[in-house]
Structure formats: structure tokens, C-alpha cells
Design brief:
Number of strands: 11
Number of helices: 6
CATH topology: Purple Acid Phosphatase, chain A, domain 2
Distance between the termini: 28 Å
Largest sheet: 6 strands, mixed
Strand content: 15-25%
Radius of gyration: 17 Å
Structural class: alpha/beta
CATH superfamily: Metallo-dependent phosphatases
Shape: globular
CATH architecture: 4-Layer Sandwich
């Protein structure tokens, strides 16, 4: 099938668990399999699929191996980065190409005529919130500099700003000012895609548009009063279908039937 380089798929937060286990009463593997089947049937022409972290619920090797077997069924070329539930060592053992050459972080870069696809690793071990260290930011700065004025699209797990849900706002990206300094210094980042929030949302952060999509497994309700813990619910799972053009970005939130 001819691939559309200006069409991408965004998946997030599959929270894979080992064989025979469930999470919040749901089967993450069955849900991801249903999602992959839907993508293959309706959006198999996409040029890329990005998974933006929390690949496994407990960061264990068995769950990453299970995830890899499921992703092997996806007809769209896929890339991934990590979230706060992940373990870099275990991820690297199963997904070595998630790490750019010479990097200790799950960051990668792909340029194409529609714009550069840049995945950032916001995992801060031992914390639910995220952080981008100087090495990761320097890598991003170099990638953006190499693009000149051509557009770039960033994917990372943690949102850089508050979204109005207190339990999630307490675990956003801790050093968003540092990220903004890199982005604003180059001026060619067109859109930011995040995971972590388990909800379909959109908005702008300091003038930069951002989008989050629902989790493949469980969701977070629109609870604007509970400070902790993060509440969960069984709202419908979904993924994003991203369309790029010289005029801008369109993101469709695509629900799918899930067991």
C-alpha cells in the first residue's frame, strides 16, 4: 500500500501487562489488538504511527515482549518513546531502535517532506511527573537547528502545562520553561503531541498548539476537583489520526470497538 507521508497515527498509554493479567478490569492486549485491527483496516496508508509512552504498566520485560508481538501486526511503520510507567533498560532490550545513536534516552528523529517527526523522552525515574535533562534538550536543539525553517512536530509523554485536572497537573512536565526556551529559540515547531492524560484534549501552550489522545486501555474522567489519586474510568478508547498540510494540522480522535 502506498504510504501517505502527511498522515500519521498517534497512540498512547497502552499500559501493557503480562499474559493472563488485567488492568482496572480491562485487557490491555485485547484492546491494543482491536486498535491495531482498526488502524490496519481504515488507516493502513498512514506514513507513521507514534506511541507516546506508558507502554507497559509496570515496566517489566514480559509486557514489552508482548507489546512487540502485537505491534508486529501493525501495517503502519511505528515509533515509540517512554512515559513514567516505563523502564528504559527493559525498553531498550526489546526496542533498541527507540534510542538514537549514542543516546541513553528513548528519543528519535525522522525527517520527511511533510515535516520532521521528533520523539522526546520525558521519563524522570522515581517520579510520576516528567523532566527533560540538559542532554535531551541539547539533542532536541541540534535536531531543530538542522531543519532550518522546515516544520517539526514533537511527541512526548508529559504535557508541558496544566490542563485543569488537579491529579494530572501535579505530574506534568516539571521543567517546561527549559523546553520552551529551546522551541521558541528555533521557531519551527508547529505542534506538540502528548500522552499521559488519558483524555482527548487540545489547546495551546504559550502559543504552541498541543493535542492529547485517549488511552488505548483506561481513561481519566473530567474531574476538576480531586487532587489525588488519579481517578480512572471506562470511557471509550481512541487513537489520533493526524493530517499535515502547508496550511496546518488536523487531528481526528478515532474511537474503536474494544473488548
Amino acid at each position: 500500500m502506498m504510504k501517505n507521508r502527511a498522515k500519521w497515527v498517534h497512540l498512547t498509554d497502552p499500559h501493557m501487562v503480562p499474559e493472563g493479567e488485567r488492568l482496572f478490569g480491562l485487557d490491555p492486549a485485547a484492546r491494543l489488538a482491536a486498535c491495531i485491527g482498526h488502524i490496519n483496516a481504515h488507516h493502513g496508508d498512514a506514513g507513521a504511527c507514534v506511541l507516546s509512552g506508558d507502554l507497559a504498566d509496570r515496566g517489566d520485560a514480559a509486557s514489552y515482549e508482548r507489546l512487540r508481538r502485537l505491534l508486529d501486526e501493525l501495517v503502519v511503520p511505528w515509533r515509540l518513546t517512554v512515559g513514567n510507567h516505563d523502564d528504559r533498560v527493559s525498553v531498550r532490550a526489546v526496542f533498541p531502535t527507540a534510542f538514537a545513536a549514542g543516546q541513553d534516552f528513548a528519543q528519535s528523529f525522522e525527517d520527511n517532506p511533510a515535516g520532521a517527526l521528533i520523539l522526546l523522552d520525558s521519563l524522570d525515574p522515581g517520579h510520576y511527573g516528567g523532566r527533560l535533562c540538559p542532554d535531551r534538550l541539547a539533542w532536541l536543539d541540534a535536531r531543530l537547528a538542522g531543519l532550518g525553517d522546515r516544520p517539526a512536530y514533537l511527541f512526548l509523554h508529559h504535557p508541558p502545562c496544566a490542563i485543569g485536572i488537579p491529579s494530572l497537573d501535579a505530574m506534568a512536565l516539571a521543567n517546561s520553561d527549559d523546553l520552551f526556551r529551546v522551541i521558541s529559540g528555533r521557531g519551527n515547531v508547529r505542534h506538540l503531541f502528548v500522552g499521559h492524560v488519558h483524555r482527548p484534549i487540545g489547546g495551546s501552550w504559550r502559543g504552541l498548539p498541543f493535542t492529547a489522545v485517549a488511552s488505548i486501555n483506561h481513561q481519566v474522567p473530567l474531574d476538576m476537583s480531586t487532587p489525588a489519586p488519579v481517578p480512572h474510568c471506562h470511557e471509550a478508547p481512541a487513537y489520533g489520526v493526524v493530517l499535515l498540510s502547508p496550511d496546518g494540522v488536523v487531528v481526528h480522535h478515532q474511537a474503536f470497538d474494544a473488548p
